[in-house]
Amino acid sequence: MCPPADEKGKAGPKPAETPFADMPAVPDFEAMAQNMGKLVEQAGKVTAAYMRPIERGEAKTGQADEASEMVKVLGRVAERWVSDPQKIIEAQSSITSDFLTLWSSTLKRLGGEQVEPVIEPEKRDARFADPEWNTHPVFDFVKQAYLLTTRWAEGMVEQADDLDPHTRDKARFYVKQIAGALAPSNFVATNPELLRETMAQNGENLVRGMKMLAEDIEAGGGELKIRQSDAGAFQIGVNIATTPGKVIYRNDIIELIQYAPATETVLKRPLLIVPPWINKFYILDLNADKSFIRWCVSQGLTVFCISWVNPDHRHALKDFESYMREGIFAALEAIEQVTGERQVSSIGYCVGGTLLGVTLAYMAATRDKRIASATFFTTQVDFSHAGELSVFVDEEQIRAVEEQMAERGYLDGARMSGAFNMLRPNDLIWSYAVNNYLKGKAPTAFDLLYWNSDSTRMPAANHSFYLRNCYLENKLSKGEMRVGGKLLDLKKVTIPIYNLATREDHIAPAKSVFLGSQAFGGPVEYVMAGSGHIAGVVNPPNKVKYQYWTGPKPEGEFDDWVKKTEEHPGSWWPHWFAWVEKQAPKRVEPRVPGEGPLPALEDAPGSYVKVKA
């Protein structure tokens, strides 16, 4: 941010006359020395936590493959530039010119002149929020030098000739990771706020941070598992995932939860929710104010939700068909026993939605009509414009993942959690690394980030099928996927569909969800909500935080559809419920979980959701 313009109309920060004005003039050197000794001691514990799994032969594999892939991809970019000497000279001239301009600007500032910045961070970049990044010429120089370098590196990727799109996407991704890691805000010596904190606390912040670093490496089994929230502040079933209900069915794959009614009458047709197994279902039941499940119950829906098992080696051979039969089909049979209803409304979220789409195509092929309508939350069934996770998907990378899974029968939950965090490294990795390990501050309690760190494993057969058939080969939308001996055709799915996308989704982009809408053979209500993959879905009406857009039938090009939309303030939840209720408005007496043919096994949220990865 620039300060107000001066009387001549020139903007720019003034040189700091007294850098670190609020820092003690003379630190307590004795306390500093003692803390440095403690820091070395804690560093030894960090090393021990890292080495222990290696010495026991329990070290997790995969990091070497990832590093090798990064070197290989960036090497391809370098090859394109080296093959054209003239372009190399131009690239060197560009960065040299930028730094000469910056150096000249800094000299003027040191001489007392006010100058415009050569480059500024984006307004949403919180890394450089401390005022001294602007007011102190040294830190301003460091900041701008970093920004110029990262912009130049990004340009090298964009301007490299003859790169295939996938390689370019991967190169962009790796440059973003390197740039995030090397930011001057991540180091004590180059971050004015960290310098002030360290001097003011005589290094105690670094000792606390190193202690947390050792604990987090220990918790990650030799790999760093950055804490994003105060885990001790939450207990599943106590102050998170608390909507009343009962587990009424259990097998090797699922627990089925039936939620207790809260209205005098309920819609006759029940609702089945199919959450992703990559994460735990309680993203839809964080707390009373944010819970989509609790809200559905309050509208008079009989809600059933699948809680997937957190798999281990025993589930290695469970594939997509297993999850369809032992997951969705088993749930449908249990719901019919409990309610007497043959047909249900359904919701699928993310990969749970992809499974639901596969299941609907299979049911269409077998003339099974038990699912009368389907709602998809940020779901892809066509992966031709898949989100940023596609950078992890090609033949070589999938083969490496399959080799890792073959050793244990599953993919460790930390792998997927790490991949999601890497999509937003500055927000989900480095901000916490700085706060935790350099400032020495434990993160605050935040239910969403607690859920985000509560990762799950993936069975080998299931995950391999998903990566190959969906992300790599896009077989479902092409009509080439086979499940249970049936060739699947989404055009034969003619039931009503409510397809929710979110505008800023980097996992299931709105354009991809829009394209997937055109794969179905029946009526599709395509709705786009504000925000991203999680916040756009978990957007209760009482918050009035984001908006949503409705428009015509999802045909043609996505950008053309957007131009024809109508914006609505607030949550899309009431709009969706009106859509569901209109299809089957008849109401009946409430159903109490556990009082039907299937007795209650235990209280919601059950046992499967409490198993840690």
What's this model, at a glance?
With 613 residues, the protein is α/β, with parallel strands linked by helices.
Write up what this structure looks like.
With 613 residues, the chain is α/β, with parallel strands linked by helices. It folds into two domains: 29-219, no CATH class; 245-390 and 473-610, 3-Layer(aba) Sandwich (Rossmann fold), CATH 3.40.50.1820. It has 20 helices and 17 strands. It has helices at 29-55, 63-82, 85-110, 132-135, 137-158, 165-181, 192-200, 204-219, 292-298, 320-339, 351-365, 395-408, 413-422, 425-438, 447-453, 460-472, 475-478, 510-517, 558-563, 573-583; strands at residues 245-250, 254-259, 266-267, 271-274, 303-308, 344-349, 371-377, 410-411, 458-459, 482-483, 486-487, 497-502, 524-529, 548-550, 566-568, 587-588, 602-603. The strands form four sheets. It has an eleven-stranded mixed beta sheet with strand order 15-14-13-12-7-6-4-5-2-1-17, with helices on both faces. Helix 5 packs antiparallel against helix 6 (165-181), helix 10 (320-339) packs across helix 11 and helix 12 (395-408) packs antiparallel against helix 16 (460-472). The longest helix has 27 residues, at 29-55. The chain is globular, with a radius of gyration of 27 Å. InterPro entries: AB_hydrolase_1, AB_hydrolase_fold, PHA/PHB_synthase, PHA_synth_I, PhaC_N. Residues 1-10 have a biased composition (Basic and acidic residues). Residues 299-539 form the AB hydrolase-1 domain. Its main location: cytoplasm. It comes from Bosea eneae.
Q: Give a count of the beta strands, DSSP E runs of length 2 or more.
A: 17
| CATH class assignment of the largest domain | Alpha Beta
Runs with pLDDT <50, length 5+?
1-22
From the helix content, strand content and strand pairing, which structural class follows?
alpha/beta
Number of helices: 20
- Looking at the overall shape, the CATH architecture of the largest domain is 3-Layer(aba) Sandwich
Sheet of most strands: 11 strands, mixed
Rg, nearest Å: 27 Å
Mean pLDDT: 91
Number of domains: 2
